[in-house]
Design goal:
globular, mainly alpha, 75% helix, membrane, Amino acid/polyamine transporter I, transmembrane helix, single chain
Length: 460
């Protein structure tokens, strides 16, 4: 695409395509496991304001700092220093890696409904591993995600979602079922609200990508317009799927569904063909997303290596133009998490929660950077930064502490590499603020190791 030729509607389609992923297919079960209809609706209202503010953080920063184009972590590094920028980039990379395992698990679990051999945990682990290494082999030989694949996967996920909304709304929704236990009497309302939060973030991962397209927009104002239209379109689909599901099955029934819970809800309304329709869409969508995200997994590593935060060798490309070393590292770590998740019997839900915690790092620090950047300029941009910062920090508070602690443990090995690289380059390790962050990461990692050792922490 040439510069400044992308229309507002093309931007909208790009935003919707990059945001709608595997999460929406598991949404009925995910939300049904933690909240009743009332908490669900309020949760989406909060998430709507919060995630839109985060989307605008990246859009505002893209306009204010057009020279910073090294991914979402670049803003954090510019405002809060090398180590916090590195931690954000590492969090985004680890979130992408963990998400890969979650995507593949959902893919093979869905196949397992029709081919039970994939429900065997060892077969599932081997299948995820083989898929990851086959895609790595293709990427190192110059495989690109073709426009045809983008088109197929976009249609594959939107057709069953729209079919779900229409069919359930007209054939399966029962007001009595929806209102039977509206406030989720089985658990405190605040606990329900906290429980739903990380799932609402997971299904919005990618909304920050709107800022990537700002340079290609025909008009800069189109980016803000497209962000609102694209965001509200995605939010409408997410709220529709969530709300309609509560009108078909009770909260307890939704919580007991398999990972491909959208398919199970539609099957309850129209019969087996509804489940097949959603399952085919899910498999095609997730497979396309798996290829593109494994390709993108290497990007934060390459960018941080080019910026001197990791060894320069990690940015090298092979003869096919592939960042083979970064992709090898990403695939090795994907394989590591396959072993960790499957040995610990981690569920798809646990993978999602941990990946979301990692994604929150660049969100939080980017929002704080915008506040610092606009602190002396009272107005809309400052308000957006404040809302996004408060929302992001509240998400960490709302998260299960086990995922926060395990997130600290996941970041620690990268910190060791960072220290080694700084010493090799003869650069200062940390400033005072960074030492505080390092101390918190180390304490969290130690607590996580102790909890895993005595069994008080797990990913079950």
């Amino acid at each position: 695409m040439s510069n400044r030729t992308v229309s507002v509607w093309t931007l909208v389609s790009l935003i919707i395509g990059s945001t709608i992923g595997s999460g929406i297919f598991a949404l009925p079960q995910n939300i049904g496991s933690v909240a009743g209809p009332g908490a669900m609706l309020l949760g989406w209202a909060i998430a709507g304001v919060g995630m839109l503010s985060i989307a605008f953080v990246f859009q505002i920063l893209a306009v204010r700092k057009p020279e910073l184009d090294s991914g979402v972590y670049a803003y954090v590094r510019a405002g809060l220093g090398d180590f916090i920028g590195f931690t954000s980039g590492m969090g985004y990379w680890l979130g992408s890696v963990m998400a890969q395992v979650g995507y593949a698990t959902l893919f093979f679990n869905t196949l397992g409904y029709y081919f039970p051999v994939f429900l065997n945990r060892w077969v599932l682990a081997i299948s995820v591993s083989v898929l990851s290494w086959v895609i790595y082999w293709g990427l190192t030989r110059g495989l690109k995600q073709a426009a045809v694949m983008n088109a197929v996967t976009t249609i594959a996920k939107l057709v069953p979602i729209l079919a779900f909304v229409v069919l359930v709304a007209f054939l399966g929704f029962s007001r009595d079922t929806f209102t039977a236990d509206f406030w989720g009497s089985g658990m405190p309302f605040t606990q329900q609200l906290k429980g739903i939060m990380l799932y609402t973030v997971w299904v919005f991962i990618g909304i920050e990508g709107a800022s990537v397209y700002s340079k290609q927009a025909a008009r800069r104002s189109d980016v803000g317009k497209a962000t609102i239209i694209g965001f509200l379109s995605v939010l409408a689909l997410l709220v529709a799927v969530s709300t309609l599901s509560y009108g078909v099955l009770s909260q307890e029934e939704l919580a007991a569904l398999p990972d491909n819970s959208m398919g199970a809800v539609l099957e309850a309304v129209v019969g087996p063909w509804g489940g097949v329709l959603v399952s085919v869409g899910l498999c095609l969508s997730v497979l396309g997303a798996y290829v593109s995200w494994q390709m993108l997994c290497a990007e934060p590593i390459v960018l941080m290596a080019e910026d001197g935060l990791l060894p320069e060798s990690m940015a090298r490309h092979n003869a096919n133009g592939s960042p083979s070393r970064a992709q090898l590292l990403s695939t090795v770590v994907i394989q590591f998490f396959v072993v960790v998740f499957f040995l610990s019997s981690a569920s798809y839900t646990a993978m999602v929660q941990l990946a979301t915690i990692m994604y929150l790092l660049p969100y939080i620090f980017s929002a704080i950077y915008l506040v610092l950047l606009t602190a002396r300029e009272p107005g809309k941009d400052l308000a957006v930064g404040v809302v996004a910062s408060v929302y992001s920090l509240w998400l960490i508070y709302a998260a299960d502490p086990v995922y926060v602690l395990l997130g600290a443990l996941a970041v620690l090995p990268g910190t060791i590499v960072y220290v080694w690289n700084r010493r090799r380059r003869g650069e200062r390790l940390f400033n005072t603020f960074e030492w505080v962050v390092v101390a918190l990461v180390c304490v969290g990692a130690v607590v996580a190791v102790a909890g895993l050792a005595d069994g008080s922490l797990s990913l079950d």
